[in-house]
Write a structure and sequence with these properties.
This protein has 275 residues and is of the alpha/beta class. The chain folds into 2 domains: 120 residues, Response regulator (Rossmann fold, 3-Layer(aba) Sandwich), CATH 3.40.50.2300; 139 residues, Rossmann fold, CATH 3.40.50.2300. The chain contains 9 helices and 10 strands. The longest helix has 21 residues.
Length: 275
């Protein structure tokens, strides 16, 4: 999970870029910030680096901001990056998170609120700028699978609590909700096959319907086995139960970390946009 965190600032105003760059550098000195004054420079950066956030104005000297966003979405490295449009238009609609679309905008920010408010917004999205504080609730009955997965989590300094049975995981979530008044876990990582009376699908349904924890409050990553040659992946069961995403076993470290990061980004984005 540990990698250089990058932010791309796109603004035609030299003074605006300088002010934002200095403010962000002062408050988040370990954040790698690249500032561009036009679309050509921005696309060069986008094709070379992966960013967590891109901010852009609408009027640029060589292109329209929305046309630039369409090009950014064509870049594999930044297809899912959060993009904030900074505009004098006070329309603060959230377009929605259809990151498959090339015109997807995560949020609009009214520049009249000032650069300090924009910096606050960016850092809140990043989780108050700490190294990703991830708390995983991990449910898996297999000793082999558990050993592989927990070694990955340990190597990457990811905090986790492990249970073999769904009932124990649900009790843990209930206690967390009772103690804190909200869910403090970032992700539920569960295998489909569990000990006890409930399987992974039933656990997820209990989380969604019984505990009322939705896709943004507690994202779920389901672990399944690779289907055989004559079998098909049960997409209806996987996503019908309330799963955000799934991964096949044995898990690949890079794949697992990437999916965890994506789901944590979804949660952080929701928290930043709906404080």
């Amino acid at each position: 999970m540990a990698r250089k965190r990058r932010l791309l600032l796109i603004d035609s105003s030299d003074s605006a870029r300088t002010i934002l760059f200095k403010e962000l550098t002062n408050r988040a000195p370990d954040l790698d910030i690249i500032a561009c004054g036009n679309g050509k420079e921005a696309l060069t950066a986008v094709r070379r680096f992966e960013f967590e956030i891109i901010t852009t104005g609408i009027s640029l000297p060589d292109t329209d901001g929305y046309a630039l966003i369409e090009e950014i979405r064509k870049s594999p490295k930044n297809k899912h990056t959060a993009i904030f449009v900074v505009s004098g238009d006070t329309d603060t609609r959230v377009i929605g998170a259809d990151m498959e679309g090339t015109d997807a905008v995560t949020a609009y920010f009214d520049k009249a609120e000032g650069h300090k408010s924009l910096v606050d917004f960016i850092l809140n999205y990043l989780g108050s700028y700490n190294e990703f504080p991830v708390k995983v609730l991990y449910v898996d009955k297999s000793a082999t699978s558990t050993a592989i997965t927990t070694s990955i989590l340990d190597r990457n300094n990811i905090e986790y609590t492990h249970f073999r049975e769904a009932a124990d995981a649900l009790d843990f979530l209930r206690q967390d909700l009772k103690q804190h008044g909200t869910c403090t876990l970032d992700i539920l990582l569960t295998d489909l096959t569990l000990s006890g009376d409930m399987n992974g699908f039933e656990l997820i349904q209990a989380v969604r319907n019984g505990l009322k924890l939705d896709y943004l409050t507690l994202p779920v990553l389901l672990m399944t086995i690779e289907p055989g040659e004559d079998e098909r992946t049960d997409f209806t069961g996987i996503f019908g139960s309330g799963t955000n995403d799934f991964i096949t076993k044995p898990v690949d470290e890079i794949d697992l970390l990437g999916r965890l990061r994506t789901l944590v980004n979804i949660k952080r984005q929701s928290e930043a946009l709906n404080p």
